[in-house]
């Protein structure tokens, strides 16, 4: 992960103990869950999406939209400083990685200019396993 200090910190051993193997692979090793299998891909439940690693608020149902890409999509975080954006040059391409601003866990990536009819023209493509939905 990054060298930055986050408000929520744990040792690698503590992260492994508090997360399932699938959660750890995505949140702490920047993995990606398979498309169309995540529990929140198609949900329209009203509520707040929080980081599964530390519980910090990330998104709400009001920013969620159906992109048909295979992962939950949001056009913005609920508050801009809830997430950290970082350049990602893995896999032979340049992307923008989305991290939890409280613990530095990997959430997914953000893309721009895809033509979705949203207020920001951005798509925060987020792994379901990186979040927990608290229904209203």
Automatic annotation (TrEMBL):
Boundaries of every MsrB domain copy: 12-136
Q: Name one Pfam family in it.
A: SelR
Catalytic activity field: L-methionyl-[protein] + [thioredoxin]-disulfide + H2O = L-methionyl-(R)-S-oxide-[protein] + [thioredoxin]-dithiol
Q: Which GO terms describe its molecular function?
A: metal ion binding; peptide-methionine (R)-S-oxide reductase activity
Q: What class of enzyme is it?
A: oxidoreductase
Q: What is its EC number?
A: 1.8.4.12
Q: What keywords are annotated for this sequence in UniProt?
A: Metal-binding, Oxidoreductase, Zinc
Gene3D superfamilies the record matches: Peptide methionine sulfoxide reductase
Known InterPro entries for this protein?
A: Met_Sox_Rdtase_MsrB (IPR028427), Met_Sox_Rdtase_MsrB_dom (IPR002579), Mss4-like_sf (IPR011057)
Cofactor(s) needed by this chain: Zn(2+)
Record's GO cellular component terms: cytoplasm
Read off the PROSITE patterns from this record.
MSRB (PS51790)
> A biological process (GO) annotation for this entry?
protein repair
Q: Which PANTHER family match?
A: METHIONINE SULFOXIDE REDUCTASE, METHIONINE-R-SULFOXIDE REDUCTASE B1
Q: What is this protein called?
A: peptide-methionine (R)-S-oxide reductase
**Species of origin:** Arsenicicoccus cauae
Q: What is the lineage of its organism?
A: Bacteria, Bacillati, Actinomycetota, Actinomycetes, Micrococcales
Gene that this polypeptide is encoded by: msrB
């Amino acid at each position: 992960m990054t060298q930055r200090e986050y408000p929520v910190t744990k040792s690698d051993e503590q992260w492994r103990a508090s997360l399932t193997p699938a959660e750890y692979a995505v949140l702490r090793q920047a993995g990606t869950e398979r498309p169309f299998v995540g529990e929140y891909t198609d949900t329209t439940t009203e509520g707040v999406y929080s980081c599964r690693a530390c519980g910090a608020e990330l998104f709400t149902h009001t920013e969620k939209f159906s992109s048909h890409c295979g992962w939950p999509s949001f056009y913005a975080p609920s508050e801009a400083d809830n997430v950290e954006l970082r350049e990602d040059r893995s896999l032979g391409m340049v992307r923008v990685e989305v991290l939890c601003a409280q613990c530095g866990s990997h959430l997914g990536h953000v893309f721009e200019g895809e033509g979705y009819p949203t207020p920001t023209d951005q798509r925060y493509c987020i792994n379901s396993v990186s979040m927990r939905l608290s229904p209203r």
